[in-house]
Amino acid sequence: MTIEQLREQVRGPVITPPDAGYEAARRVHNAMIDLHPAAVVRCANAGDARAAVAFARQNGVDLAVRGGGHSVPGFGTCEGGVVADLSGMRGVRVDGERRTARAEGGATWGDFNAATHAYGLATTGGIISTTGIGGLTLGGGIGYLARGLGLSCDNLISADVVLASGDVVVADEQHNTDLLWALRGGGGNFGAVTSFEYRLSPVREIYGGPIFFDLEHAADVLRGFRDLIADAPEQLGGFPAFQIAPPLPFIPEQRHGVPHIAVVTCWSGPVEEGPAAVAALRDLAPVVAEHVGPMPYPALNAAFDALVPPGLQHYWKANFATELSDEMIAAHLQHGPRVPVVNSTVHIYPINGACHRVAPGETAFAYRDANFATVIAGMWPDPADNEANISWVRDYYAATAPHSEEGGYVNFMAADDQNRIKANYRENYDRLAETKRHYDPHNLFRLNQNIVP
């Protein structure tokens, strides 16, 4: 298939290097990624995605599938290949009676939340609303509501998938059940997912927001959070974080630009119970500043978007922890206060509660005994700082790894983490490889944390 034949087959535009708009079309969220695909197909529908997949297969070139474009390793683009860009496919249809929503593969969590909030419903999404639903869900899906509702992938009911063969199939509990199992945490290894159907739960207003504490109390905050979250009501979500205080009105001006330990809180139970539910977290140490109260759930999901604009340099590392041990906390205290810029951060997400009620083999996401998922998210604006900031992430990871599980959350992995794939999936890896051989025997969908068939 030639580029001209590809253009004839699709509804959306096909953008190539000579075309106006190519520079914007080839870019992804991580400005460290500087690749030049031969064509970017702005898919208008599943048929366009199918044509892009066929073009890559027939020409033997790399295929990148792009949803929200937030992939830190830059898996949403490629060098010399074709990009199936789903970012224009953002429709969300809610069935309020069934409490389900079907969203197109390019939708973001902001799109999704806006549609479902009108019905007083939600499912577990991420922390940043500009994140695509596709990548987050396929890698597992950790977010504010995970302790009460499970991971995003646990709420995935069905998916429409363009396979490497060009076939378009449905994966649900009656059809292609092995594929649905693999999509629940196995990443983008098995096809281009053009729509996702989710189970929804009643969540309209939450009570929460960030609480900042002085670094001198970081050990007390981390130990207190660990102990409290172990058996807290499952409606209590949120996470501790090392964060430079941004210049926000509720933070004293003299504290702007200063590293803090923070706890971002989210109570998704009855709002009137929120103050009491969050009180124990507020009482972990003397409060420097807070912005906590009732708000629509989508507002919390979008609260930190401004810290993660497009065009930053990104380098991340991740690991799971069964326990937030005192030794692990000591490693955090050594490196967390050195967070280099306001965009960079370290989050320690609790993934107990509902996440533990799914058996390790029930989905591809295997770490059902882990209580925490840590991300060391290096994000900074100036490429001149790349070496120093990458070193901060790597040193931090090296210090925490001995106190962590061998594997980590695939959505937080860097490009140089491919050697951890088997550890990330534990006993599920062999089944994932078998499923990969069935649906993608020639590894067309290889631009991901790759499971080799």
Spans of at least 5 consecutive residues with low confidence:
none
Q: Care to count the β-strands?
A: 19
The share of residues in extended strands comes to 15-25%
For the largest beta-sheet, the strand count, sense and barrel status come to: 8 strands, antiparallel
Shape: globular
- Rounded to an integer in angstroms, the radius of gyration calculated over CA atoms is 21 Å
On the 0-100 scale, what is the average pLDDT? 97
Helix and strand composition category: alpha+beta
Euclidean distance between termini CA atoms:
26 Å
Q: With helices defined by DSSP (H or I, 4 residues minimum), what is the helix count?
A: 14
Helix content: 25-40%
Could you outline the blueprint of secondary structure elements for this entry?
Layout: H1 3-9, E1 14-15, H2 22-26, E2 39-42, H3 46-59, E3 63-66, E4 82-85, E5 92-95, E6 100-104, H4 109-117, E7 121-122, H5 133-138, H6 146-149, E8 156-162, E9 168-171, H7 177-183, E10 192-199, E11 201-202, E12 205-213, H8 218-229, E13 236-244, E14 259-267, H9 274-282, E15 287-290, E16 293-296, H10 297-301, E17 313-321, H11 326-335, E18 345-350, E19 372-380, H12 386-400, H13 421-425, H14 429-439
Helix pairs in contact: 8-11, 11-12
Can you walk me through this structure?
A hairpin with a 4-residue loop joins strand 5 and strand 6. The protein has helices spanning 3-9, 22-26, 46-59, 109-117, 133-138, 146-149, 177-183, 218-229, 274-282, 297-301, 326-335, 386-400, 421-425, 429-439, and strands at 14-15, 39-42, 63-66, 82-85, 92-95, 100-104, 121-122, 156-162, 168-171, 192-199, 201-202, 205-213, 236-244, 259-267, 287-290, 293-296, 313-321, 345-350, 372-380. The protein is an alpha+beta fold and 453 residues long. The protein contains 14 helices and 19 strands. Helix 11 packs antiparallel against helix 12 (386-400). Strands 12, 13, 14, 15, 16, 17, 18 and 19 form an eight-stranded antiparallel beta sheet that branches. Strands 5-6-10-8-9 form a five-stranded antiparallel beta sheet. Strands 1-2-4-3 form a four-stranded mixed beta sheet. It is globular, with a radius of gyration of 21 Å.
